[in-house]
Amino acid sequence: MIPSQPRVSLIVPLYGRVDLLSFQLAQFADDPDFQNCELIYVLDDPALYNTFVALCRREYPLFRIPFRTVISGANLGYAGATNLGAAQARGEYLLLLNSDVFPCQPGWLSCLTGIFESLDHPGVLGPKLLFPDGLIQHAGMTFFQEPSLPGFWFNDHPDKGLPNDTKADAGSREVTAVTGACMLLKKKVYQEVGGLSEDYILGDFEDSDLCMKLRAAGYRIWFTPQVELYHLERLSFPHAGDIGWRTNLSRYNAWVQTRRWGETIQAMQSVAAAGSA
Predict the structure, then answer these.
(1) Which of 57, 135, 145, 167 is deepest in the core (most CB within 10 A)?
(2) 43 with 71: CB under 8 angstroms?
(3) pLDDT tens by residue, the chain, 277 residues
(4) How many Å apart are CA 76 and CA 86, to the nearest integer?
(5) Burial class (CB in 10 A: 0-12, 13-18, 19+), 131
(6) Residues in Cβ contact with 113 at an 8 Å cutoff, skipping those fewer than 6 apart
(7) Which residues have CB under 8 Å from 274's CB, separation 6+?
(8) Rounded distance, CA 257 to CA 152, Å?
């Protein structure tokens, strides 16, 4: 049974494919943390309603992981679906999670929450994410400009594809931004800054935008290498289109981000460059 006052509510949007729910529940089944949190799956794909309901009825008796379901009734997009789930959440904390993210070991959720509580004025905390082969997928985000599109600020994962050298990792550190594939923050803070912005497309820049809103509100953005999960990347959005379409989509999202945060990002990049000189 889901606790009436859970400490953490996990929000997992589902679009395009719902079978990843089964794989996540299998990974959560032996983790005691998942008997004391609130797991919310948000179906953002009305065409899969019957499949989703049948899957939920089949999987709960198998894994015995309590979870709630929220049905959007329309395709709201990543931000809209996440905001809908967050509005239903009862936890003090929100853990925004993609359906293609899987833990490396039990206890990661309580560990992540404990680290969050040890940090200085945290707005959001992101863990390290790995590709299935163990290489780094995410260890914090920053911004860059493509030479062909000067003035447009894109998101970048600086350590992406590098070996996961755990011996070189220090403790938690402040970063420019973290990915929405897995991020922890307090619900009241999420509400304070208005949640995820819904004017980006397909879940590409909403996470960096949220981090910028948190910064503007006086909070700090943190990354920890002490918690690791696997991220299969893009499997939670299987109908992302061809490369050309995705390239244009990213350019549009970068334009929106630049209009909103361009001056702030430029100032941050200048300070960072001066500090490394």
Answers:
(1) 145
(2) yes
(3) 778 899 999 999 999 999 999 999 999 999 999 989 999 999 999 999 999 999 999 999 999 999 999 999 999 999 999 999 999 999 999 999 999 999 999 999 999 999 999 999 999 999 999 999 999 999 999 999 988 888 999 999 999 999 998 766 778 999 999 999 999 999 999 999 999 999 998 768 999 999 999 999 999 999 999 999 999 976 555 555 567 777 888 899 999 999 999 999 999 988 777 776 5
(4) 14
(5) middle
(6) 7, 8, 93, 184
(7) none
(8) 8
Considering only the C-alpha atoms of the chain, give the largest distance between any 2 of them, rounded to a whole number of Å. 58
Give the contacts of 228 (CB within 8 A, at least 6 positions apart): 104, 108, 127, 128, 129, 130, 164
Q: Residue 188 carries which DSSP code? A: H
Structure tokens at 263: 């001056």
Q: What residue ranges do the domains of the chain occupy?
A: 8-276
How far, in Å, CA of 24 to CA of 175, rounded?
28
* CB burial of residue 277 (10 Å; 0-12, 13-18, 19+): exposed
Residue 267 C-beta-side C-alpha neighbours within 13 Å: 7
- Partnered with residue 173 across adjacent β-strands are 223
- Has this prediction a pTM greater than 0.85? yes
In the block, residue with structure tokens 């430029």: 266
- State how far Cα 79 lies from the chain centre: 11
- Give me the CATH topology for the region 8-276: Spore Coat Polysaccharide Biosynthesis Protein SpsA; Chain A (3.90.550)
Token duo for residue 229:
């999960």
Question: What's the confidence (pLDDT) of residue 177?
Answer: 97
* Residues with Cβ within 8 Å of residue 154, at least 6 apart in sequence: 143, 144, 145, 146, 250, 254
